[in-house]
Write a structure and sequence with these properties.
Layout: E1 2-10, H1 16-27, E2 30-35, E3 41-46, H2 49-58, E4 67-76, E5 85-88, H3 93-118, H4 122-164, H5 168-214
Parallel strand pairs: 2-5
Antiparallel strand pairs: 1-3, 1-4, 2-3
Helix pairs in contact: 1-2
Length: 218
């Protein structure tokens, strides 16, 4: 079957034909699409009935750029004259599309600027605050680097001081370890002497008690 449509609305120089070509090729249809001088777009598509029904609904596009207001459509037997689906391009049309794209870009920039003005310049303020925060972050990182540098300097000074003292700090630490060992040894000796004295005292007291019992004193 052949499906023929005349599409009205905002459909020229907004990428409508490119979208239709992609849809038709995805469905495996054959035919063509072209801009008419009266502002409409003409579409001819040939293929299976079911796919043409899908295609009929898909060409009714409404988005930020494209707006289809009405479609005049009809069906007829396929002629088989098309080998693929493409668009017919008029002479000089590429330049016109580039100019149109530039106009849309200008409108977009204008809309963004107007949105910023309506927000009372809040977008600019937010960007300014972001720059301030980044600046403070850089300052904090700089101070952190300074602190780490001073820490390294202090460590170097301690090492240098020990070297200048001829290793006396290490010697003092060694003597301290020797002293601790001597004290521990002395404590062990004192503990042993105390335990020995207690044992001897208990033995002596036992002998005294035995003597007193022998004399009948206790």
């Amino acid at each position: 079957m052949r499906f023929t449509a005349y599409v009205s609305g905002k459909v020229q120089e907004v990428g409508y034909r490119a979208r239709i070509v992609d849809i038709a090729n995805a469905l495996g249809l054959k035919g063509m699409i072209e801009n008419l001088k009266d502002g409409r777009v003409k579409i001819i598509a040939e293929g299976e009935d079911e796919k043409l029904k899908w295609f009929e609904g898909a060409i009714d596009i409404k988005n930020a750029l494209i707006y289809v207001s009405s479609i005049e459509k009809s069906y007829s037997p396929a002629s088989g004259e098309f080998n693929s689906f493409g668009k017919l391009v008029a002479k000089g049309e590429t330049d016109t599309r580039l100019d149109t794209a530039a106009d849309y870009l200008k409108e977009l920039i204008s809309a963004v600027n107007k949105m910023n003005e309506n927000l009372g310049g809040k977008m600019d303020q937010m960007l300014s605050k972001q720059d301030q925060m980044l600046s403070k972050q850089d300052q904090m990182l700089s101070k952190q680097d300074q602190m780490l540098s001073k820490q390294d300097e202090l460590l170097d000074e301690v090492i240098s001081m020990n070297e200048n003292l001829g290793g006396k700090m290490d010697q003092m630490l060694d003597k301290q370890d020797d002293l601790i060992i001597e004290v521990k040894d002395m404590n062990r000796k004192m503990d042993w002497a105390l335990e020995t004295g207690i044992v001897e005292l208990k033995s002596y007291m036992a002998e005294v008690k035995s003597a007193l019992k022998a004399k009948g004193i206790i």
